[in-house]
Each structure stands twice: as structure tokens, then as C-alpha cells.
Amino acid sequence: MARVRGLLDGYRPGPWFDEAFDSNGAVRAAYQRVADRFAEIDSDELRRIEQLVAAEFRRQGITFTVYSDDEGTERTWPMDLFPRIIEASEWRDLEAGLAQRIGALNRFLDDLYAGEQAAINDGIVPRWLVTSSGGFERNAFGIDVPFGARCMVAGIDIVRDADGAYAVLEDNLRNPSGISYVIENRTAMVKAFPRLFNDHTVRPVDQYGQLLRATLTDSAPPAAGDDPSIVILTPGIHNSAYFEHAFLARLMGVELVEGRDLIVDDQVVYARTVGGLSPVDVIYRRIDDAFLDPVAFRPDSTLGVSGLLAAARAGTVTICNAIGNGVADDKAFYPYVPDLIRYYMSEEPRLPNVATYVMWDSEQRAACLDRLGELVVKPVGESGGYGIVIGPQAGEGELEAARQSIEADPRGWIVQETVGLSSLPAQAGARLAPRHLDLRPFVLTGERTRVFPGGLTRVAMREGSLIVNSSQGGGSKDTWVLADDGLIAGTAADASPAAAAGAGLGAAPGVTA
Amino acid sequence: MILARHAEALYWAGRQLERSEHATRALDVVVRNTMHYRMPRALAEWRLLLDVFALAHRYRDGGGSLDRERVADFLFADVANPGSVVSSVRQLRENIRAVRDRVPVELWEEANRLHLDLAAADAVGLLQEGPYQLFSSVRRGCQTISGVVAEAMPRDDGFVFFDSGRMIERSITTCRVVQFGLIAPAHHRGGALAPDGTRFEDAADIEGTVFDHSILLRLVTSLQAYRRMVGYDEDPSALAAFLLRAEPVPRSVLSCLRRVGGHLDGLQAAAPGLAPARQICGRVRSLLEFGDVDQSLADDPANYLTGIEAGVISLSDSIARAFNPVHSTDLHTQFVRPGAEGGGQRPRAWEGAGP
């Protein structure tokens, strides 16, 4: 490829919102230094840095697994070098909105499984919708969770519409993954562009382990004392997120166990060590409900631990995230979340939903089927971007198939207005071109709710594509949340990270709710 | 206390690291050495390698006649041979990957790097064209891993199992060098070359080869030490005794067993399941430490060597038993899934290394 200078020359944002350039093509203030830096380097230099980062990721085994047929393939984690920047004030709004949303969802879940089901009784959410959800789990009744924090780790997918307004696209309340890549992306960016970090006060992302461990410790059964035994339960090295499981275990200094390492005796969970059985107090499980306990769920599961649920019900062990959360991140449930926020928090939602239509309502269904070509059709039970039909990009055959699927199973589908998704410059051949992206911030809930600064920015690497999932060829970007007055001006820095982060766990992220 | 599964992965990682490094060294030695010899003599050395790594059966069953290139390929690059260097490195990497959360980051990164480099290299081509660079890069990779282990790995339970694995693998190989390099040729002169009965019909003329002491010593990286401590004594018994019990030599069987014994002593209180292993280790050690090694070698060397090697192998088995702890008799049988014990898809053992 020929050497190209001026990587951003001729950069044309589309009709959607571009995070770095305004509609006149001028660089937004927060991105000025980054744009300057990318203007200094040429395509050869960019490629060189990119190869360095990729080689480093490969050597460090920073990978994810893509399943095709029965064989899993280990792929090196893809990161695009042009970072995403979120200004301090913008982040404060997002943070408050996320904490509010997770607060309401946790209240709902705990009310559903351990409370009076007030939201259902008061008609905020239809009972049939809850009980017909694939994620609704009768086994969760009677299992109490400290602080009612049933969703201890949440990942909320957020997008920006054509005006740049943030909206929630999807809640992930079961086993959201990606936090390890947030941290590794930062490590790689610091190596690749050290000078950029001198020019900005970017809030650090390296306290996640400490925060997660504190949250898990909070959630231990009271009998476990101050230093509970915590483990992460992984399906094993062939799982797509194994890298993350091992990463978190190392970060927190806890054991990474598989189902076969655990055993339940008299409603107590033990790990099988060389020295004998050693009791376990908290299990941060990264296994789906269905595989957790062959006695209670799928009898053919070889990943779980027999009797685990009985132990949880007896209160000798805490399972994080709690069982049955899938009911509240069912896509069919999503349209009700704003009302739940009003109901439980007595506040207006700070972060709106994307306009969504439920297909079991015959009027909404008829209206949608008339103009399906403008809308996005999503199966309620899938994740990872599978099964989605994007109307404006779909052929007539695909739309007809979607129409028939909706008619056949209205409960199984939701339809959303097409959101353009904002864009940022990303590497495209020898130059940088606009590519769509989303954001998955992570929210931890123990005694309080903490929103981790930034999150995982996923980017569609193909022109015009709206699918950002890494399993479908998407990439990622380092995500910077600036401390107040994040650009260090020519004068002395007036915003140190410590001052911006405030009290709490050292330089811990902002705390709300 | 370490999870039994993690202990097992680290134990085998230790063995695989030792195997990878040692097999590479041994190949290097034999490739260089056999340049100077005519056929029968050279073939005998290749044959010795197959015996030392307990792979003669597998090689013969693969239909191979004894041939320099084929043996080198089989021992180094053959992915179908679980005891080859390439396979050992792959298994080492898989086992470290299974414990990557609890070992130093660099240990995982170096094991991963070694595996990736080796997988990307054209090992078969390099073996023929220029094996020295290939050998030296694998050796350096293994030594880097050893260095990380020495300097960055906490001396915890994980280290104990990793290092015990290395020492057991090392002591078995040293035993076998003595047995097949020194004793078997003398003992079986005129008969089947190897006590395991594997014969290569087309290579009958290599039977009875007497190996130079220098090559045997180089196979276990102890030539320099021997020259300094013993000199040029060509008596097979002197060499055998040196390799079995010379204390300052890190590859002598006694040195290895001392280290394993120390590790097991340290775990005694926390892991009572290891008591039988500790006893076996003590028994074999005392044979070497207090027994009359010279007299035993003079009386019935083959029998004596077989006994020592069998002791080390039963020590290995006994440690392996701690990886599948049975607790409170059959308390848990109702919950233990059949076939779950010691399961996993990863190959952990290679042919011949166990009983």
C-alpha cells in the first residue's frame, strides 16, 4: 500500500452524529489533540503501531474465541487506535442515568424473586410477559441476595442518535463480558501513544479488580466473616470469554475454578484442593443459569455443580450475578424499563430507551409490519448480534421472512426505530474513515452502585455496518473519560485525576445512588 | 491450598518444560555428534534417544525404519507424537493457560510466545537445513521460562508442584541415560539392544554399541561438571555413580529427589494426602544416599537401575493421586459425575513416562 499522509484529510462524517467532527467537518474541541496527533503520522507509521499492538496482544494471549461449528478458534482481540473521548460533564449525566437504571432493575428483580412483586401487581409489567420469559427462573425464588443486589455486574449497551443524544439499546444483566478488554485496550494505548496521555487527564481504569473484589466481598453470606473465600466459576479454557475469566481472577487474586473443582456437601460448597475440601463463600459465576446445577437445571450440564442451588438457598454461598436475571434483560422486557424507573425510583428516566414496539400488541404490530423496511427487528432471546434484521439494509426476502417470524411468534420479537449510531474515525485501508460504534459501560452493585468510568467501545469495521459485535467482525476502541477540564492547557494542569475522582476507594470511579 | 486441578496442570507443565528443553538439548548433541560417525554408530545414538525418551515403541509402530531424519523429525516436530518437542511445548502452553490467573503474567506470555514461535516456524525444513538455530531458540525460550519461574514465581503450592514435575521428569531421564547408555549395551551385548524388547530388524548391527562417556554426559548437560569433579575416568560404574548421586550436579537423580523431598516435606501438614509420596521419595533417596551404590552397580546394574527408575515413577503416581482427592470415603459419590475425575480434553501424559 502506498504511503498516505494526512490520514484524516477528506474525512467526511455521514448524516449521523460523528463524535469527533461536527457537521461542518470541524474537529470537536475534545478531540483536537488526538486529531493533531493523527495528522502528524502517515499510513506507514499507523500500520507499524497497529502491528505492534496486534503482536503484543497475540503474545500476551489477549484473545476471544469465535465458535464455528464445533470448533472454537482463538482470535486476537481487535483494537482500533483512534480513541473515543467522553467529556467529564457528559459522563456525569451518563453515570447518573446508568445508576438510576440499574437501581430500578435491581429493585424489580429483588421484588420479583424475594419481594411482593409490586410492579407486577400494580400493572407496570404484565405478569404473563414475565412468566413467559426464557430468563424467568422459578428456582430463584427463596434465594436471598445481600442488599438485593441481584445484578451485581451489569453491562448496558448505549448508542447516540443523530442529534448526539445517548440512549440505552440493551441491558445485559446476566454475564456481561468485555471489562478485561477495556483495561487491556488502555494498557496498549498507553504504549502506542504515550504523548497523548500527557496532553489529557484521562480517568484510569485499573481499579476495576479492587472494586469488583470489594463488591464480591460485600455480597458474602454474613457467616463468611471479613475475608470470604471468593472464586470465579468458568466453563473452561474453551469458552469464548476464558481470557476475561482468567484476567479477572488474576486481577483480584482469587481462584478460577471449573464446575469439576467444586463439590457440595450438606449444602456447603467446597473447592477440591490438594489439601482437601476448602469452603467457598462467594461464586462469581460466568456460566449461564441453565448450566449452573444439573440437579436444578439442565441435567446434561457438565459445567456446573450438583447441589449448588440448594447451597445458595440455604444461604451458605452467594452466587453472583443472581439466578433468574435473564427475565429483566429479555428484549421483550426492555420497553418497560422506563416505567419501572418511574415506579421504583420516583424519577423520570435520565437515559431514554430507543423507540421500541412490542409485537404482541396488534396495533403496534400492524403499524410496524407496514414499514418494516425502515425498522430493526430483533429476536428477544438472542445476543451477540445474531438474528437481527436491519430493515434499511435488508433485502425483500429477508424482510418477508422476518414478517412471517413475527406473525408466527409475536412474543419472540421486538421492533425498534433504526438508530443511525454515532461514528468515529477508524482505520479503513490507508486512511481513517467514519465507522459506527456503541458503548458498553459496566455498573457494579453491592451495598451501593458504582459506575465504572468509560466502558467498552465496540466499532463496526465495515463501511456502513451497524453490527459492532466482535463475534461478527467488530473491533474496539480505547474509551477515555476525561476528568474535569480534561485537556491540559498550556498552563499548569488544573485537574488532577485524584481531585476529579473524589473520595471513596482511592481513585475510584464516581459513585451514585 | 491450591486447587487439585491447578496442581495437576502445574505438575505437568513442569514435566513438559523439562521434556521440551531436555529433548531439544539431546537432539542438538546427537545431531552435532553424529556428523562425525559412519552409519551404524550414528544410528545407535539416534536409537539411544528414542530409548531415553521412552518412544522406541511408538516410533517403531509408526512404521519407521531407523533413519536420522525420521527420528529427528519424530522427536522434534511430529505433532502426532505427544512426546515430541513441538507437542510438549503445546501441552506446556495449554497447561499454563489453564492456570494463567495464578502464575506470573510473564510465565504465561513466555510459554505462549514459545508455542507461537514454534508453530510458525517450518520445523521440518529447519531440522534438515539448519537445526542449530531452531534448537537454540527453543532452548532460550525454555530457559527464559525457567528464569521467570525462578525470579517471579512465589514459592507457594503452585511452585512446589511445578518444580516437582520438573525434577521428576529430570530424574527419570537421567536414570534412562544411565540405563540405556551405559548398562543396557554392556548387559545386552549380543542380544536385543533394549530391555523393552523393541528391535529394529534392519539395524541389528548397532546392537552392542558402546557409547562415549562424553556424549552421555552431554546428553544430561553434565560433561563439564564431570571433568572438574572426576576427570577422565572411563569406568562405567564411576560415571553411573556420578549421574545417580553426585550432589552438586543439578541433573543427578539424588539432587532431583532432594528437591522433590523438600517440597513434599513443606506440604506435609497442609496436604496429608501426599504422605505416601513423601515416603516413597524418602525410600528412593535413601537408597542413593546411604546405600552402597558402587556395589549395587557391580552386582546387578540393570536390576538396580530398573529399581531406581520404578521408584521415581511410583513417586510420580503417588503425587498424581493427590490430584484426585477422595475425601470422607464415599460421602460425595452421589454427586460426582462419572468420568469427571481427572477428565479434561488436554493430553497430560506422554507415552512411556508413566507406568
- Structural class by sheet pairing and helices of chain B: mainly alpha
Total number of beta strands of chain A:
24
Helix content of chain B: 55-70%
Largest sheet of chain B: none
- The number of domains of chain B is 1
Please estimate the helix content of chain A: 25-40%
- The coarse silhouette of chain A is globular
Total strand segments of chain B: 0
The low-confidence runs of chain B, each spanning 5 or more residues with pLDDT under 50, are 187-195, 327-355
Number of helices of chain A: 16
Q: What characteristic shape of chain B results from the CA principal axes?
A: globular
How does the SSE layout of this entry go?
The complex is a heterodimer of chains A (513) and B (355).
Chain A: H1 32-40, H2 43-59, E1 63-68, E2 71-76, E3 80-86, H3 88-114, H4 118-121, H5 127-131, E4 153-160, E5 166-172, H6 179-192, H7 194-199, E6 200-202, H8 208-218, E7 230-233, H9 242-252, E8 255-257, E9 262-265, E10 268-273, E11 276-279, E12 282-285, H10 289-292, H11 308-314, E13 318-320, H12 326-329, H13 337-345, E14 356-358, H14 362-370, E15 375-379, E16 389-390, H15 396-408, E17 413-417, E18 423-428, E19 431-440, E20 442-445, E21 449-451, E22 456-459, E23 475-487, H16 497-501, E24 511-512
Parallel strand pairs in A: 3-23, 7-8, 7-12, 12-13
Antiparallel strand pairs in A: 1-2, 4-5, 4-20, 6-23, 9-10, 10-11, 14-17, 15-16, 15-17, 18-19, 19-22, 20-21, 21-24, 22-23
Helix pairs in contact in A: 2-6, 3-13
Chain B: H1 4-34, H2 39-52, H3 56-61, H4 68-76, H5 85-97, H6 105-120, H7 123-129, H8 131-152, H9 157-187, H10 213-219, H11 223-229, H12 236-245, H13 253-267, H14 275-290, H15 293-299, H16 301-321
